[in-house]
């Protein structure tokens, strides 16, 4: 990569009570030139690392957000060049995850399945979507290098479902304005809690900033405020349990001899047609029927019929992660159940730690800091918050699924794609399908809603095979969501 001379960001400090906090210049940028080979073709681009202020309702600066913006440099007409705005979740998580492991021009060094390797570092991403779209990765307040600058600022204006959406909508509008991208087709992508964020954000941008989008990509989505209490909440995890048990080889031989694509439709049908209707009866379910269901669940989940009955058919995820491989002295991961962990003792009802998350922190933090210094010539003594202090987080008033439905209804150009990993126990794939089914009760928008599944976990792109497939799916989604020139937005 060839780099130009950078305009370095300026550091300063001020005190919050007794603690000193280092800050960056709140409105600055540094640009460098690079090249990456994607799908066998060279793609030149500029990388901008920068900060942009967050203002309150009185126009006073209260915070700034750090971002990294990649723009293809051999494009003459930006009006036809898509722009993707990328967020991760948490809440409190920085944009690092999708930035250096999924859609961006570089990848952290990991093995084919996503495990950390040394030496730490990064390489070109031959599957990046930068060939078809420009991308900006945004760190919300108190994540990454983004910080509050006004020590008197009310934290409630940042840390909540609706507060988050409100200030980010203003920030995105300002960014689009500064980069002269109003005419460009625009897309939002969010992962995990980031799906809550972008589902609310697309509606807010559309209705308060009058900015219209072509697509929203939901990577490992949350429940989006869509109700699923009682039997539905308990039963919906069974297909995920099956996928995990299949991966670890603890199902019965006839099931292990089948491919995952053959097994899961069978389990989904059982969940919808038998398990949920029976669980609706609660304690009044017939004893023989309860035993019959427990037997089937045991077959599909890799757990004993005894423990399933002890939980009245509603096996908690925390217990499943501890129980599935208990006889092997191992636990399985929450965010990616392919990972195994070792607890202090085999007894208990939940694991000591999530082996998936521990592995990812191990892989990402060194690689990202190395990339900032050596790849983008950005140096600071600040700590990059992979997970920042954003709590308490106000989760009240979460109607983001309805927000997204409303945005779809109002904007005939808008499309939504959901991406899920079969081995994700934090935001499981079947609940993602359920959210899609429930989002539009009328069924009139379903031709613009799609779902894709991958044989990995929460960050499905960490597995090499799924990295390529998932990026190709986004690439095709972007192309599909951009209408032919002159096509009116109407029903």
TrEMBL record:
Q: What is this protein called?
A: Carboxypeptidase
**UniProt-recorded Gene Ontology molecular function terms:** serine-type carboxypeptidase activity
User: What PANTHER family does the database record attribute to this sequence?
Assistant: RETINOID-INDUCIBLE SERINE CARBOXYPEPTIDASE, SERINE PROTEASE FAMILY S10 SERINE CARBOXYPEPTIDASE
Q: Which residues form the signal peptide?
A: 1-20
Keyword terms, alphabetized? Carboxypeptidase, Glycoprotein, Hydrolase, Protease, Signal
- Source domain of life: Bacteria
GO BP of this protein: proteolysis
Pfam family example for this protein? Answer: Peptidase_S10
């Amino acid at each position: 990569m060839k780099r130009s001379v950078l305009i370095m960001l300026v550091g300063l400090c001020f005190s919050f009570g007794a603690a000193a906090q280092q800050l960056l210049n709140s409105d600055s940028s540094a640009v460098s030139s690079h090249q990456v080979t994607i799908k066998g073709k060279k793609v030149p681009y500029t990388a901008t690392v920068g900060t942009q202020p967050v203002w309150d309702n009185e126009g006073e600066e209260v915070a700034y957000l750090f971002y990294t913006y990649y723009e293809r440099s051999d494009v003459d007409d930006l009006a036809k060049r898509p722009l993707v705005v990328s967020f991760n979740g948490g809440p409190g998580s920085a944009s690092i995850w999708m930035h250096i492991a999924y859609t961006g021009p570089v990848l952290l060094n990991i093995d084919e399945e996503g495990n950390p390797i040394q030496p730490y570092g990064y390489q070109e991403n031959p599957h990046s979507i930068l060939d078809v779209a420009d991308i900006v990765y945004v760190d919300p307040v108190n994540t990454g290098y983004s910080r509050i600058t006004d020590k008197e600022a009310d934290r409630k204006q940042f840390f909540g479902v609706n507060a988050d959406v409100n200030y980010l909508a203003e920030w995105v509008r300002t960014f689009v304005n500064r980069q002269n991208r109003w005419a460009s087709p625009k897309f939002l992508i969010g992962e995990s809690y980031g799906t809550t964020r972008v589902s609310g954000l697309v509606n807010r941008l559309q209705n308060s900033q009058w900015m219209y989008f072509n697509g929203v990509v939901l990577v490992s989505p949350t429940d989006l405020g869509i109700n699923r209490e009682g039997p539905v909440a308990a039963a919906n995890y069974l297909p995920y349990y099956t996928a995990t048990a299949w991966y670890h080889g603890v199902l019965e031989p006839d099931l292990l001899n089948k491919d995952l694509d053959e097994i899961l439709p069978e389990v989904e049908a059982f969940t919808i047609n038998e398990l949920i209707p029976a669980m609706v009866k609660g304690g009044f379910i017939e004893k023989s029927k309860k035993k019959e269901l427990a037997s089937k669940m045991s077959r599909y989940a890799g757990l004993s019929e005894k423990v399933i009955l002890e939980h009245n058919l509603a096996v908690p995820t925390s217990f499943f992660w501890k129980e599935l491989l208990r006889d092997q002295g191992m636990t399985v991961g929450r965010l990616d159940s392919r990972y195994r962990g070792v607890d202090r003792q085999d007894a208990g009802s939940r694991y000591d730690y999530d082996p998936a998350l521990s592995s990812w922190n191990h892989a990402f933090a060194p690689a990202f800091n190395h990339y900032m210094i050596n790849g983008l010539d950005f140096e600071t003594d600040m700590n990059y918050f992979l997970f920042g202090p954003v709590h308490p987080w106000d989760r009240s008033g979460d109607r983001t699924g309805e927000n997204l439905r409303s945005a779809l209804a109002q904007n005939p150009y808008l499309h939504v794609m959901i991406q899920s990993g079969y081995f994700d126990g934090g935001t499981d794939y079947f609940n993602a399908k359920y959210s899609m089914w429930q989002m539009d009760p009328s069924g009139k928008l379903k031709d613009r809603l799609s779902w894709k599944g991958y044989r990995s976990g929460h960050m499905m792109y960490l597995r090499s095979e799924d990295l390529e497939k998932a990026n190709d799916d986004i690439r095709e989604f972007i192309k599909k969501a951009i209408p032919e020139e002159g096509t009116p937005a109407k029903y």
